[in-house]
Design goal:
Layout: H1 2-21, E1 40-42, E2 45-47, H2 67-77, H3 83-103, H4 106-112, H5 115-130, E3 134-151, E4 155-171, E5 185-197, E6 206-214
Antiparallel strand pairs: 1-2, 3-4, 4-5, 5-6
Helix pairs in contact: 3-4
């Protein structure tokens, strides 16, 4: 009888310990060390997310060779660089810049363009406005991929190919389209190069070069 009592007591203690040390409650957070995490503020102290000790290495299947090795090299130099975040932001910048150019939004253009590229955009806007014209642009089916990464002494330059369907029309004061009355979409390939200095306090990659190819 005593043996049975001790056996039951031992089993009870085992399951109690397992419940405290080994059980999952269903409320544990799943930690992804590569997930983009924003800094949070606690009082006047800014708490930055902890970075993994070993940077993630992208696979050849994620980017075509030799872009994958270029991405890995950039992540080694700049531990804040995340290629997935960069690509999302690059597509957002592409849409924002074209929208700002269409709407003659100089404030947005100055934030996202290098001074030389801004001057080119500003000149085109000025010429358009002198003729009392405006531009309409619609973008659909946007896709992007990194073509090349140049790592210089104090900065990195990333060239991205944007493939999309675009409707572009120049409109006069009578609200008539001068060059695309049918509002047809054209397959476009835009090759843009972005630049950011290492150690910059700004997270923005400035657009420094553009060229367009008809697909």
């Amino acid at each position: 009888m005593e043996v049975i009592v001790f056996a039951i007591l031992a089993l009870y203690l085992f399951f109690r310990l397992w419940g405290v040390l080994g059980a999952r409650t269903g409320y544990e957070k799943k930690v992804d060390p590569f997930k983009e995490v924003k800094a949070t503020e606690e009082g006047n102290i800014v708490v930055m997310p902890k970075r993994p000790n070993s940077p993630r290495q992208v696979e050849q299947t994620e980017f075509p060779s030799p872009v994958a090795s270029q991405v890995n090299r950039l992540m080694e130099i700049d531990n804040h660089f995340d290629p997935s975040v960069f690509m999302r932001n690059a597509q957002s910048a592409f849409i924002s810049i074209i929208k700002a150019f269409t709407e003659a939004n100089h404030m947005t253009l100055k934030k996202l363009l290098s001074p030389s590229v801004y001057e080119q955009f500003a000149t085109a806007i000025e010429e358009r406005e002198k003729k009392n014209l405006r531009q309409e642009t619609e973008i659909e089916d946007l896709h992007a991929e990194i073509l090349n990464i140049d790592i210089l002494d104090d900065r990195a330059q990333i060239t991205v190919c944007f493939v999309s369907q675009q409707m572009m029309a120049t409109i006069n004061q009578e609200n008539q389209s001068l060059d695309n009355p049918a509002r047809l979409q054209i397959p476009m390939r835009d090759i843009w190069t972005f630049e950011r200095f290492f150690g910059s306090t700004s997270p923005i990659w400035l657009l420094i070069r553009t060229r367009t190819e008809n697909s």
